[in-house]
Amino acid sequence: MVTTVRALPGKSCSLDVLPTRLLKVVIDTIAPFITELFNRSLSSGRVPEVFKAAYVTAYVTPRIKKADMVPTDPRSYRPISNLPVSSKLLERMVARQLLAYLNTSGLLPRLQSAYRPHHSTETAILKILSDILLAIDAGDLSALVLLDLSTAIATMAVDKSSTTRSHTTRLTIIIEKNFSLSHC
To answer: Residue 86: enclosing H or E segment and its boundaries?
Structure first.
């Protein structure tokens, strides 16, 4: 827990009760309490409501999706949700432990590139290129079909009258293992 908090970027959300820089100063003292809160959240399958609130900056500080898009068209912008540091911390702790479990249990496909150290889009492309070249060398026919989902997330509706949005996603982890952060 302490190592993960110290590795957090210094950014804070306006919804944070305790700014990240101060959290890093007091983490040695409050780590057992945060761990207990996170464990209760995981065991109950519920994320505290304050973790779900996000400060949406779609219309305050807009970010254009792509350089070639029309700046006057509202569809050219994506909403930016600034989540509280507590939400980000819980997500990182769960992701770290879940990935460790999936890796040690051999549940991740060997060639999966996402969310794995030393794997990237570059390594995935090299694997595909290698497979195509080997197929061509063997005299086989090769085809590559690509699907661009880069704007699928950007279709989310945003309520322009509010700068905060509550996420209603319920944390559900289905693993036949007692999941807690006691070993973090």
So the answer is: helix 85-104
Lookup result for tokens 């507590």? 86
Distance CA 23, CA 6 (A): 9
> How far is it, in rounded angstroms, from Cα 87 to Cα 102?
22
Dmax (CA) for the chain in angstroms is 65
Q: What is the pLDDT along the chain (184 residues), one digit of tens a residue?
A: 898 889 888 877 777 888 888 999 999 999 999 999 989 988 888 888 888 777 766 554 556 667 777 777 766 666 677 788 888 888 888 888 888 898 889 888 888 887 788 888 888 889 899 999 999 999 998 888 877 766 555 554 444 444 444 433 333 333 333 444 543 4
Taking the domains of the chain in order of start, what are their residue ranges? 2-116+158-166
pTM: 0.59
**Of 3, 184, 2, 6, the residue nearest 95 (C-alpha):** 184
Measured CA to CA in angstroms, residue 134 lies from 125, 127, 131, 137, 139 at distances of: 14, 11, 5, 5, 9
